[in-house]
Amino acid sequence: MIMKRIAGIFVLISLFSFAKAQELKCNVQVVSQQVQGTNKQVFETLQTAIFEFMNNKVWTNHVFGIEERIECNLMFNIQEQLSADEFKGTLQIQSRRTIFNTNYNTVMLNYMDNDLQFRYIEFEPLEFDPTSHISNLTSILAYYAYFVLGLDYDSFGFDGGTPYFQAAEKIVDNAQNAPDKGWKPFDNTSHKNRYWLVKDLLDADYAPCRDFIYRYHRQGLDLMDSKPVEARASIATDLELLQAVYRKKPDPFMHPMHVLFDAKSDEFVKLFSESFPEERSRVIAILNEIDQANSSKYKAITEAKK
């Protein structure tokens, strides 16, 4: 399956092909317990509409087999109903990627968007225009669809996700004159918003992070089944790419690094708990330097059975 995906990156299929490229296998959940009111049916309709939008839309020029679709989850937590058709809350986005020759799925993205606010009229179709910001809801959905695709493609080919990150960046640019939060550089003082998420990832100063995504998956996890010692050693070395970004400090917040650690910190513990003592010490030193927020997790690597 993975070899087909790698080949597919380099094979462009016309959008006018009779084959439909449904790239995402997206599970959608809309939670609305915090909202008072009698019309709960609108949230069920919304959930169905989002599911169909994410799963039925053609996002790339490539043809995906059913088993190749990218698994992702969207969980909408609707906290307020501001008017009859306006809602506010949060959105949790997760995506996964299958590792070669295994049934193991690695987490690619585990991200919380706290700037969710949108209008939705029940039964109205969800419309998206890549050239303009016509709906905050569909702009958000398309943005994360492209972001999930970008991460997945980066993990199969060096900088393979660039076209999809650029598509997400275009959505950001379209929204600069809109009143909706999350799209502008000053909407969040910690850089934790859609604007900085994709702008930083496309910035040359963060290029080693994307290099790490490729090496970690293709030269690390995808080889764990056949060459576990060599694959783990490769990942241990590749952590130095993240260390270089950390030491350079492109900005005070380094949001892409935190996004990466939110997805991978638990996996690092599992991987390096099986390492040799010297490798463990080297990895722990790097992780404790560059990801201090998860240092308590990394203690488990030292405490694992020798």
Overall description:
It is a single chain. With 306 residues, the chain is of the alpha+beta class. It has 2 domains: 1-13 and 21-175; 203-306. It is 46% helix and 16% strand. The chain contains 10 helices and 4 strands, in the order αβαβββαααααααα. The protein has helices spanning 2-9, 41-56, 136-156, 162-174, 194-202, 207-218, 228-248, 255-272, 277-290, 295-303, and strands at residues 24-31, 70-83, 86-98, 105-119. It has a 4-stranded mixed β-sheet. Strand 2 and strand 3 form a beta hairpin. Helix 6 (207-218) packs antiparallel against helix 7 (228-248). It is globular, with a radius of gyration of 20 Å. The model is unreliable at 7-19 (pLDDT under 50).
List key phrases describing it.
alpha+beta, 2 domains, 10 helices, 46% helix
Task: List the topology elements.
Layout (H helix, E strand, L loop, with lengths): L1 H8 L14 E8 L9 H16 L13 E14 L2 E13 L6 E15 L16 H21 L5 H13 L19 H9 L4 H12 L9 H21 L6 H18 L4 H14 L4 H9 L3
Parallel strand pairs: 1-2
Antiparallel strand pairs: 2-3, 3-4
Helix pairs in contact: 3-4, 3-6, 4-5, 6-7, 7-9, 8-10, 9-10
Give a short summary of the structure.
This protein has 306 residues and is α+β, with helices and mostly antiparallel strands.
Largest sheet properties: 4 strands, mixed
Cross-sheet strand order for the largest sheet: 1-2-3-4
Amount of helix? 40-55%
* Percentage beta strand: 15-25%
Number of strands: 4
Query: In terms of structural class, how would the helical and strand content be classed?
Result: alpha+beta
The Cα radius of gyration reads: 20 Å
Shape: globular
Could you report the average pLDDT, rounded to the nearest whole number?
A: 92
Q: What is the count of structural domains?
A: 2
Report, as a whole number of angstroms, the end-to-end distance.
Answer: 35 Å
Number of helices, counting only DSSP H or I runs of 4 residues or more? 10
